[in-house]
Amino acid sequence: MTAVSYLTAFAADAAAKEPAVFPPLDTWHFPSQIFWTLLLFGLLYFMLSRFILPKLGSTIETRHSTIADNLDEAQRLADEADAGQKALEVRMAEARAKSRETADKARAKIETQINAETAKVDADLATKLDAAEARITHLRDEAMSNVSQIAADATQAITDRFGVKTTTAAASSAVGKALDS
Amino acid sequence: MEGDIALGMKYIGAGLACFGMIGAAIGVGNIFGSFLDGALRNPSAASQQTGNLFVGAALAEALGLFAFVVAMLLLFAA
Amino acid sequence: MNQFFGGAAANDPISQFKIKSLLDIDVAGFQLDFTNSTFWMVVGVFLTLAFFGVAASRKALVPSRLQSVGELGYTFIADMIRGISGEEGLKFFPLVFTIFFFILSANLVGMLPFAFTTTSHVAVTATLAVMVISIVIGYGFYKNGLGFLNLFAPPLGDMHPIAKFVLYALLIPIELISFLARPLTLALRLFANMLAGHIILKLFAGFAVMMASAGGLLIFGAVVSFLAGATINALEFLVAFLQAFVFAILTVIYLNDALHPSH
Lengths: 181, 78, 263
Description:
The complex is a heterotrimer.
Chain A: H1 3-16, H2 30-161, H3 168-180
Chain B: H1 2-17, H2 20-41, H3 43-46, H4 50-77
Helix pairs in contact in B: 1-4, 2-4
Chain C: E1 21-23, E2 26-27, E3 30-31, E4 34-35, H1 36-57, H2 65-85, H3 93-110, H4 122-144, H5 161-214, H6 218-259
Antiparallel strand pairs in C: 1-4, 2-3
Helix pairs in contact in C: 1-2, 1-3, 2-3, 2-6, 3-6, 4-5, 4-6, 5-6
């Protein structure tokens, strides 16, 4: 039997059967179908809406609220940590400022000490320098007077050689004249 | 003889009723074609519209199935 | 047991829809027999209840696989209602949930071999559709009073009275007819989808058997027919889900009309 003959066979078969009613349009079972559909639908609706859906819904609700609560808690902890970090930063800044202040104070103290010491040393040096200078001047003067003495002696000696008698006073005045000129 | 003619007419009528499915085919094709058209332009919005896509396809398909029901009625109930 | 499994031995694609009485029940002249259709409807309802009963009894914070599937169904329907008619529509949540899973279980039970597809009977789908529309009409009048009739005569705003009259004369019959067509299309869509799907499945299976038994080159035809039948079978699972979804979503859309009749 080919496919086509199969089709025609069942169509003819269906047509040949005496009542040949299409089952979904057979009316005898309509009351039964409607009754049982309504009854079973009502049963399903009752069981679901009364017992099962509230349970499912509450489970989902609990989960949502738990997740939301946990998220809130996490947010709160994060905020706390942030606040702690901020406080820490403030404390750090404070400590840094304080340490800078202390260092500045110490530096200023040391500086004044150094200045005082330097001034003292400078003053000491200055007096020592002055004394030295005075001694140098004195020595130079002494040397200079020695020089004129030597020059006068030398002059006296030279004039002696030339046979001219000179007094020490004349010689020294002449040397003084020569040196002054 | 007259019964045979009536039977033949019934089959012809059922076959003619099936032409109604052409419209459903065009409609369903149109829906999916348009969906792909839009989905390729804006793929990010496509996933939100799959629900509408299937509802539209089911609505269009149903009209073709009405033709099928008419064919069934002609074959078995008329 | 054979009376439960109609159509298994029959060859034509129609006899699978045949209803057989398993238990004669007569109440006040109505023939309320317990039929094979009723039996499979009971199976579907029982499976739904068992599934969600077990899924709901586990209240773990981190859900198991079964529990998360059950909750997936819950949130799927809830999100669908919320998306169409907002939080207000959630008062119909149990109804829409029941409709979706009643139809889905009937469709999926019908996909079992030898089982009966309850939703392939127009009496069943029409009962559901008429029930939905009755709830829409009843709730619409209960909540909005006569304002529910705005559904058929939407406010047009400022307009010339004659133009308004002409528009309403066109609009009201159209809206009325489209409203009255709703239960019809709702019932026929589900019915025709399931009917057509199972007829096509039966046809392809029948072709395969016929061609294979004919032998010769027709074996190839049998293979092709078998593969096509398997493909259609997969498609039917999609259709089973899709039609339940469409029925539920249209229910929500119609209920939304009852909640907000002036669009």
